[in-house]
């Protein structure tokens, strides 16, 4: 069966139903109105260069001879303009900012701004509601390296009624920031689509050097502040100054069939970091970055006290994550909580960790993370497949204080976070090195429940020691089995570990532990 994920003015995205993570059960050919358009091997595929307000028949013909079909009707539009009609040169030398922004500003609602093939050197651009930006194949939006010309945006503006209008944020706090390459504030019904590239060009500037000395926080490649009904489809986003895509207090964000890439050594170049958003779908995407591939956030304690908007209803499916610190990370800025997260049919390759939850004392009483599901996941060469760390010691001024590292049962107060239920099912992990699972809760606020079912984890023959979690006084581990501390309820069913050094299940300070079909080879 073919599911339609998105159908816009000129592009559409589809997902094949099946059980295999990321890759389709067999190769296939896609036909559009009977004519071959592409050869595919992944569960998610896209079609571009479609005509608006037009019906199409889409057929998927599998190598074995079977086929499936679906019909679509593209979205109507009011007009279409090329950025070159507004004076954009697209040679990568002349700066095109004014022409690009003019096209965005002047097009009427329901219109499409087209970037034909070319390299468009630009300073930051601002989005507006009810438009589509289309970067056609061969088009590259190239960020200027002149940092001093990037506007520095203040944390809030004040409306005539005295109400604050928040504009920017970074790492869980409202903070002055350089304007992002593509910046949307309070915009609705926006799509950025196509086979082109959004290139932060950070490697050719100073964004990755001495950035702690900058007068403001670094920009993102795409920043969406309090936006609604946004679709990012097909594009490649690369070499961001920091995080690549940062939806912030936004609703109904779909990120489909895109590729995000930056050098493995580039600092803080997370792939997608939704923060305090409701309704985020990340489907069919590929990542290879210098930090976490996906990091779901909800701010630090100051933001939770001010707004208290949790991250809710997030779906991650049919994605490929490579060469990041964590494939899917929660936190560490999660003070307003994270709930209802589903991660299914994904492949993690050569990330430091698979699931990575990082929190600590001081995130606050509203930092409740619960109802998290990981199902049908393949991992290869992931150093530690599962990490839940309530002792995270990075980023905050008090990171090395006794309050953060003390193993004593401290009083529960308005600074104490809590973790609820986590389920891990149908996972095959090969080539692990440090630990199969490392879960370390707080003594005064134990994790409610962790369940493992139908899981196989094997270690590499040449496994090297490492620290499974970033915490004070961390010990190096190698071939560690399932390690759990301060978890109220643990269920282990049909779990196999191969190559463990020592005990397969190490449990401390847990009330209820059940195992059924647990094997250690």
Write a structural description:
With about 525 residues, the protein is mostly beta strands. It has 3 domains: about 70 residues, Immunoglobulin-like; about 200 residues, Single-stranded right-handed beta-helix, Pectin lyase-like (Pectate Lyase C-like), CATH 2.160.20; about 190 residues, no CATH class. The protein is about 5% helix and about 50% strand. The strands form 7 sheets. The chain has a 23-stranded parallel sheet that branches.
Topology, element by element:
Elements: E1 2-7, E2 12-16, E3 23-32, E4 35-42, E5 44-47, E6 55-62, E7 67-73, E8 80-82, E9 91-95, H1 97-106, E10 111-115, E11 118-122, E12 125-126, E13 131-135, E14 139-143, E15 152-153, E16 156-158, E17 164-166, E18 177-178, E19 182-185, E20 188-194, E21 197-199, E22 222-225, E23 228-233, E24 236-238, E25 245-248, E26 251-256, E27 259-261, E28 278-283, E29 286-288, E30 294-296, H2 301-306, E31 311-317, E32 320-322, E33 326-331, E34 338-349, E35 353-358, E36 368-380, E37 384-389, H3 402-405, E38 418-419, E39 421-432, E40 435-440, E41 447-459, E42 480-485, E43 487-498, E44 505-508, E45 512-520
Parallel strand pairs: 8-10, 9-11, 10-13, 11-14, 12-19, 13-20, 14-21, 19-22, 20-23, 21-24, 22-25, 23-26, 24-27, 26-28, 27-29, 28-31, 29-32, 30-33, 31-34, 32-34, 33-35, 34-36, 35-37, 36-38, 36-39, 37-40, 39-41, 40-42, 41-43, 42-44, 43-45
Antiparallel strand pairs: 1-2, 2-5, 3-4, 3-6, 6-7, 15-18, 16-17
């Amino acid at each position: 069966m073919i599911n339609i994920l998105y159908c816009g003015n000129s592009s559409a995205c589809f997902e094949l139903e099946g059980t295999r993570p990321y890759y389709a059960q067999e190769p296939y050919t896609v036909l559009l109105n009977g004519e071959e358009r592409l050869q595919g091997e992944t569960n998610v595929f896209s079609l571009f260069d479609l005509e608006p307000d037009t019906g199409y028949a889409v057929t998927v013909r599998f190598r074995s001879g079977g086929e499936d079909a679906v019909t679509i009707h593209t979205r109507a539009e009011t007009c279409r303009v090329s950025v070159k009609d507004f004076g954009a040169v697209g040679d990568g030398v002349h700066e095109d900012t004014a022409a690009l922004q003019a096209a965005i500003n002047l097009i009427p609602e329901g219109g499409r701004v087209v970037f034909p093939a070319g390299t468009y050197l630009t300073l930051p651009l601002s989005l507006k509601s009810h438009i589509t930006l289309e970067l056609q194949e061969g088009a590259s939006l190239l960020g200027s390296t002149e940092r001093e010309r990037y506007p520095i945006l203040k944390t809030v503006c004040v409306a005539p009624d005295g109400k604050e209008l928040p504009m920017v944020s970074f790492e869980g706090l409202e903070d002055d920031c350089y304007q992002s390459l593509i910046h949307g504030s309070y915009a609705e019904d926006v799509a950025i689509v196509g086979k082109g590239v959004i290139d932060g060009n950070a490697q050719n500037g100073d964004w990755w050097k001495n950035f702690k000395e900058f007068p403001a926080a670094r920009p993102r490649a795409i920043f969406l502040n309090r936006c609604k009904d946004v679709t990012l489809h097909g594009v490649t986003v690369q070499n961001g100054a920091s995080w690549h895509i940062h939806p912030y207090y936004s609703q109904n964000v779909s990120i489909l069939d895109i590729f995000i890439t930056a050098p493995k050594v580039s600092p803080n170049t997370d792939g997608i970091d939704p923060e305090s958003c409701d309704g985020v779908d990340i489907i069919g995407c590929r990542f290879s970055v210098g930090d976490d591939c996906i990091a779901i956030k909800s701010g630090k304690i100051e933001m939770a006290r001010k707004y208290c908007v949790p991250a809710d209803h997030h779906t991650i499916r049919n994605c490929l994550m490579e060469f990041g610190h964590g494939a899917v990370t929660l936190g560490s800025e999660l003070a307003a909580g994270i709930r209802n997260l589903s991660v299914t049919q994904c492949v993690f390759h050569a990330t430091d960790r698979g699931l990575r939850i990082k929190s600590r004392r001081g995130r606050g009483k509203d930092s409740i993370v619960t109802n998290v599901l990981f199902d049908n996941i393949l991992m290869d060469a992931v150093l530690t497949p599962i990490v839940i760390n309530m002792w995270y010691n990075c980023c905050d001024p008090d990171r090395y204080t006794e309050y953060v590292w003390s193993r004593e049962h401290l009083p529960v107060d308005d600074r104490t976070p809590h973790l609820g239920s986590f389920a891990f099912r149908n996972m095959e992990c090969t080539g692990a090195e440090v630990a199969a699972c490392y879960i370390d809760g707080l003594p005064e606020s134990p994790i409610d429940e962790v369940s493992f079912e139908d899981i196989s984890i094997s270690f590499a023959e040449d496994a090297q020691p490492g620290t499974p979690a970033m915490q004070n006084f961390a010990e190096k581990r190698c071939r560690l089995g399932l390690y759990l501390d301060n978890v109220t309820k643990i269920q282990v069913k049909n779990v196999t570990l191969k190559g463990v050094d020592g005990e397969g299940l190490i449990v401390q300070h847990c009330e209820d532990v059940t195992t059924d079909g647990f094997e250690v080879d």
